[in-house]
Design goal:
Layout: H1 2-12, E1 32-33, E2 46-52, E3 57-64, E4 70-75, E5 81-86, E6 92-101, E7 104-115, E8 118-128, E9 133-143, E10 146-157, E11 165-178, E12 181-190, E13 199-208, H2 220-229, E14 244-251, E15 254-259, E16 261-264, E17 270-275, E18 279-285
Parallel strand pairs: 1-16
Antiparallel strand pairs: 2-3, 2-18, 3-4, 4-5, 5-6, 6-7, 7-8, 8-9, 9-10, 10-11, 11-12, 12-13, 13-14, 14-15, 16-17, 17-18
Length: 286
């Protein structure tokens, strides 16, 4: 499944914000060790996630301010670094994302707005080190107080005439829940400039455990942006309270299944997720 996602994003990505490693579908299997269930008595924050897919090892490190708010996410390979800024009400009002792909550096600055206390829109302006410029705007829809749809659209800006723009892609994620956990994620990317069929992915998650989901500890607004902007941050999975043990992924004619194994610490937090032939996630907390 990692290979499936990796191939899709490498083959079809022609814009900044693509997934660099395709490491998306880690979860858990029926074998559980340690832990005390989904109601830990100790409150922790995610400090780092290390991804070992058998080829590369990448660590994502999280930094917090004195209020305990997430302020930075840094990847060891610089494929995706985030900086979060807060307003006087301690809500995220700006996010800066910097990505490095060889000698090319892409920077996107998002301004966040809310409506009735919920995320409404993120307007992004971006540039690349080669002089290219673009916009990347996000919206989200809520159903029963949960994020049910994310839409993002990237538009290129002509370098010779900034009044001329062209659509690079539109991404949509439709999210369905069973209780507090995702049961289905339908992802679609349409790229008008690429003469290829629309990419569609349908992922069904099931057999959840009762333990804390590490990615669910991160801010919802961060997960919304990262869900499309940097899929190897596992952001979509952050909308679930717990961890799935089974997943089925359908993309065009391809149909794959995976099962996963978690190890937990004494406080019920996952410390490791292992998928046979796919790799290992290692979690650290603070």
């Amino acid at each position: 499944i990692l290979t499936l996602f990796f191939s899709i994003f490498i083959l079809f990505s022609c814009e900044p914000g693509r997934a660099e490693n395709g490491d998306l579908l880690f979860g858990v299997d029926g074998s559980e060790t340690g832990g005390n269930g989904g109601n830990p008595t100790v409150s922790k924050k995610l400090k780092s996630v290390t991804v070992d897919d058998g080829t590369d090892v990448i660590t994502y490190s999280y930094t917090y301010n004195s209020d305990g708010k997430l302020t930075k996410l840094k990847s060891s390979d610089n494929s995706g670094n985030y900086e979060l800024f807060y307003d006087a009400n301690k809500s995220i009002d700006k996010i800066t994302v910097t990505q490095s792909d060889g000698s090319l550096i892409t920077t996107t600055n998002f301004s966040i707005t809310y409506e009735n206390g919920k995320f409404k829109e993120a307007k992004g302006t971006g540039s690349e080190s080669d002089g290219s410029k673009f916009t990347n705007n996000f919206t989200a829809v809520y159903t029963n107080n949960k994020v049910s749809k994310i839409t993002s659209k990237m538009v290129g800006i002509d370098s010779a005439d900034p009044t001329v723009t062209y659509d690079l892609y539109t991404m949509t994620s439709d999210l369905t829940y069973s209780g507090s956990n995702l049961s289905n994620w339908k992802y679609k990317i349409l790229m008008p400039l690429v003469p290829l069929p629309t990419v569609e992915i349908n992922a069904t998650m099931s057999d959840y455990d009762t333990h804390v989901n590490p990615f669910g500890l991160l801010p919802e607004v961060f997960n919304i942006i990262a869900a499309h902007f940097e899929t190897d941050t596992y952001a979509v999975m952050g909308f679930s309270a717990n961890n799935y043990r089974k997943i089925n992924v359908v993309s065009n004619a391809d149909n794959q299944n995976a099962n996963y194994v978690y190890t937990y610490d004494a406080d019920g937090y996952p410390t490791k997720a292992v998928a046979a032939n796919l790799g290992t996630l290692t979690f650290q907390y603070q």
